Structure formats: structure tokens, C-alpha cells
Amino acid sequence: MRKLTRRDLLRLVLASGGAGVAATATLLYGRRVEPYRLVVEHVEVRPAELPRELDGLRLGLMSDLHRGSYASEAFIERAAEALMSLAPDLIALTGDFVQGYNFQGPSVARALRALHAPLGIYAVMGNHDHWLDHEAIERAFRGQFADRPFEVLRNARVRLEVRGAPLHVVGVDDVMVGRDDLDQALAGMPDRQPAILLAHEPDFADAASQRYPFVLQVSGHSHGGQVRLPVIGAPILPPLGEKYPIGLQQAGDMLVYTSRGLGMIYPPLRLMCPPEVTLITLRA
User: Fold this and answer.
1) Whole-number mean pLDDT of the chain?
2) 3-state secondary structure of 156
3) Listing from the earlier edge strand, what are the strands of the sheet with 276-282?
4) Terminus-to-terminus CA distance in the chain, angstroms?
5) pLDDT tens for residues 225-264?
6) CATH second-level architecture of 39-282?
């Protein structure tokens, strides 16, 4: 085997140093830049048997705000304003509003104050909300949104009317902590009327699609993995966020859209998976 020369050693040192610089730069980008590079996603969905009256309906979606150390009130305000610039007809908020032990329920409600929609704002709670104080979060929301249509759906539904056609917004409480009851939410539901399901955990779609022919399920929870790598995708995903972790997918006869969310959990890093607010347009 040939002996290493001083030139060979220098090349090895420079190569290892370059790799270290690249790794450090990637970590800094993932910690300081991408988590705040808000992306507005425009998504068209074409569910089967959508009534013509619902064609063009615009659903605004925000999820996984995780107000806390890694998501400031100002950042969430910016996201809310970005969503409002899209003029949604109704808005869905799919849970995990807070993060960590420094409870920020009133702060996250203030940050969302700009939100309003002609057909209302509808929310479900996530696992982090239950682990902290979901009732206090709901009280904060009711205080901030007392002057406009706003509902926290705890295994409940609301019937709307769009150009004379019915549309039901159904919400299940958090699945991971065992608070979901889809049968209760659907009690008295007329057969096969169009309905949108809000569920924090996206993998609930398999059970939901067996129970009712929803037009669409919207979810969060997975953050898209927070870190996505070339070829392999997200190396780490949470329970109930592994099968439908990101974007628009088919779950049986139903479509499910999973948001990458706004905030982060530990480790506070996003790579190839920026935060999002979403406008979903229904097409017949």
C-alpha cells in the first residue's frame, strides 16, 4: 500500500474540514432559516360525487402551531395574515396549538385574531393540547372569537349551506389520547351528504373512510417529518402520522390532506420541509 504523503494528508484534512463546514451550515439553516420560511400551498382536490354547488369552495388550513419556544406570536400572526390574503370561505385549525411547559393558550388565540371566514372557523384539539390544558385553550379562543362564527368540535359536527347545498364540518377530538368518538360526531347525520372531517392525526383516515364517505379529511400532527431527506423521505414520524404524513393522499375512497404545520417539536429543526399555510379548493 502506498504511503500517505503530506499532500495526501492535507487533502484529507481539507475534505473533512469541508464536510464539517457543510454539516454546520446545514444545521444552522435547518434551525434558523427554514423553520421561518413560510410557504403558502395551493391545493386542488377533486373528490368523487362532489355536488356542483360546492365547486370552487375554498378551505383555509392551519395546523400544529406549537406556540412556545420555537414559534413566536409574531410568526403565527404572519401565518394568519398570509392565510387571510387567500380569502378562504371557511377555515380549519387541526390542533397542537401549544408546546412545552410555558403555557401559551392566550398568546396563540391572540396570534390568530386576524382569522375570519364567511362560513366560519372550526378547530379540533391535538395531543399536545390535551397534555397541557385544552380547556384553557378553548376558553382563550372563545374570548378572542366571540364576535364571529368559531367552533371547537369535540366529536361534533356543524351543518352549513353553500349555494343551497348542505355541507357538514365534522371534528373528532384527539385520537392519540383516546378522546375520539366518530360515532358521536356523526349521530343523526343524513346519509351521503357531503362532509369534511377535521382530525389531528392523519392516519385516522383509514377508520374514518370505513365509517362515512367524507369528501376530505384534513390533518396535521406529523409536521411532514420536520426533516425530509433525498430518496428516503422522513426518517422519523410520530405514531398515527406514518401512513399519510404529508400532502394529499388517497385513503380508501377518501382523500386526506396532511399539513406540514407551522411550529416544531424537539429537536427544533426543519430540512426540506418548511412550515405551511394551505388553501384547498374543492373541484367537482
Assistant:
1) 92
2) strand
3) 39-45, 276-282, 58-62, 90-93, 121-123, 150-152
4) 70
5) 999 999 899 999 999 999 999 999 999 999 999 999 999 9
6) 4-Layer Sandwich (3.60)
Where b means 16+ CB within 10 Å and e means fewer, 20-33 reads eeeeeeeeeebbee
- Beta-strand relationship, 195-198 and 216-219: parallel
What nine digits make up the cell of 178? 383516546
Name the residue among 24, 115, 21, 96 with its Cα closest to residue 258.
Answer: 96
Whether 139 has a pLDDT exceeding 90, the answer reads: yes
**Cβ–Cβ under 8 Å, residues 50 and 216:** no
pLDDT at residue 19, rounded to an integer: 63
Q: pTM of the prediction?
A: 0.91
Contacts of residue 115, Cβ cutoff 8 Å, sequence gap at least 6 = 80, 83, 84, 91, 121, 145
Task: Give CA–CA dist 221/64, Å, rounded.
Answer: 6
- Pairwise CA distance, residues 277 & 106, whole Å: 21
Q: How confident is the model at residue 2 (pLDDT cuts 50, 70, 90)?
A: low
